[in-house]
Design goal:
By secondary structure, the chain is α/β, with parallel strands linked by helices. It is built from eleven helices and eleven strands. Strand 8, helix 7 and strand 9 form a beta-alpha-beta unit. The chain is globular, with a radius of gyration of 19 Å.
Length: 362
Amino acid sequence: MLTEIYCLRCGQAYPSVGLPYCCPACGGIFDDTGTWNFSPVDADLPGIWPDLRAFGWPADWPSISLGEGNTPLVWAECCGHQVAFKCEFLNPSGSFKDRGSTALVSALAGRGISMAVEDSSGNAGASFAAYAARAGIKARVYAPASASGPKRAQIEAYGADLVLVPGPRSAAAHAVSLAAKQGATYASHAWLPFNLPGYATLAVELTRQLQQPPGAVVLPVGQGGLLLGLVRGFQSLRRAGVVASLPKVIAVQARACAPLWSLFTTGRLAADEAPTLAEGVRVTRPVRAEAVIAAVQETGGRFVLVDEADILLGRDELARRGLYVEPTSALVWSALEQTLTELPEPVVAVLTGSGLKTLPLV
């Protein structure tokens, strides 16, 4: 896997030492082909690690795990249909980010990194802080001052330094980039490719739990890493003959901040950043935007938007079914209402973050 990571702009191979977040030569994005060869591994490993190793993860790097993955798949009614809700909010730190963080922090440990910085609206920072604590790596997280209070408290509880940045989410990204320019190791969940195989394990898990591939998957999208990893996971399973086709992917954004929807529908990456309750998808310039768009197109899926007024309605509908999630996760409810009649079954909706991470909302 490591030998196949290159700069998408100039083609330079990923360095053999350190963990640069972008290409030292041209500033481009590092990625691999995504054509991982899935081969089941018979190993006594924690969490998602048997599946992560099945995608070719380096065996000589440590497995920094908190028992992530294997989250419940709960069936519930929506608009007269049965939908399988994948409870990723029941991962160790309370969000799907743990699938990526177990891989990313293991990469840090494998390269001997002792201190790293990250930026986040909350969930990625909390997950990174948790796994960094597990690995004995000092963490510093830059977050918007408006980030949810429980998420900020969670980050600090793990022993990470929390730097609150005034202004929108993009201001925190700018602040961490300055730290990176000054020499800090930037463990970016957006720029680095190491979390993507972790997200790909969701494809294996869904296929195993359903005993077939989903017909469609509905999920919130900010940077789009989960979506990209998920689709690459299903592509690998298809190449291995485990599944015959890809599920249709419905990517959901808040109307207040929907750059990927704009790129998908108009060909232009709009950078509007209005306030939204769905803080987890408030990303104006997704790093891998083109790859995310291509992944959705390959599945025959599309992007949908959710109005602010519908976010809490969706949260409440999910709660009445015993699923207590944060507003970002609740985007899927409105998306299901908009698309269910066109989706092949079985339909899976990914619930990405816990409702316990948010302050009480009306």
